[in-house]
Amino acid sequence: MESRNKTRISEFLLLGFSEEQGIKPLIFGLFLSMYLVTVFGNLLIILAVSSDPHLHTPMYFFLSNLSFVDICFTITTIPKMLWNIQSQNKAITYEGCIIQMYFFILFVCLDDFLLTVMAYDRFVAICLHYMVIMNSQLCGLLVLVSWVMSALNSLLQSLMVLRLSFCTDLEIPHFFCEINQMVRLACSDTFFNDMLFYFAAGVFGFLTLTGILYSYSKIVSSIRGISSAQGKYKAFSTCASHLSMVCLFYCTSLGVYLSSAATQSSHSSATASVMYTVVTPMLNPFIYSLRNKDIKRALERIIEMAATKGPTVLGLK
What we know:
Layout: H1 2-5, E1 11-14, H2 24-51, H3 58-87, E2 91-93, H4 94-127, H5 130-133, H6 136-162, E3 171-172, H7 179-184, H8 191-224, H9 229-262, H10 266-290, H11 293-313
Parallel strand pairs: 1-3
Antiparallel strand pairs: 1-2
Helix pairs in contact: 2-3, 2-10, 2-11, 3-4, 3-10, 4-6, 4-8, 4-9, 6-8, 9-10
């Protein structure tokens, strides 16, 4: 076993979803559509925020960062899965798997941190002196700290996987290089990997969720103190979109790990992961645009500008 442990591996196999050839075109079309909607929708949010001076506020600054992270989050996993389906090849190189795992952990942590920062932003907007506290320096610092903490955690997790050795079973029962699935394939001792993973998940998950719950407990207390029903509705409406994203992100993430703990089926784990790796980033633009008049107006201006510039470019005007 010792000699086999030290064998240098070159690639893993991503098993993905169904093995049936007849259903693969359907899966390819479905994920390609979801991928395009995610990228295009979040790009529109970023374009709307950057092009409209009325949206140059802390709330929309954090929203544009969240949209950027969601685009990167989706790009990390879906294109490789689509390529594997189209080429009928399940292989991913060892280096590619480590890189994919690093960026996946990075963007998951960033999503978590940004949702917490946005909860704090809503807390300050409703309960404290918003324009005094949420200045540009603090907003930049909060985003920077989120990136640094996420990058350090992702780097440490990836380095711990690099120290592992693998045997002959190199099949990952997933459509991307998920860290838990990779650790399960290792022949060497994974005790420190498991401890680090659960420690990081506990610390980051506990801190961020506690921050969100504390912010919303203060928000609810402040809203209850508002006398008019219209004032309560206006205050709550500013939090509704973010609260929807928080519930969607945490419920789907928790569902993935509960389902993986309850069953050993690889397909059920991969299917559950689709919810927070694909569905949640795709729904982000819809949640924030359908209920937000400012975003709607900015998107309408962009569409009008594109409609008027189109004929000009074509020489029709």
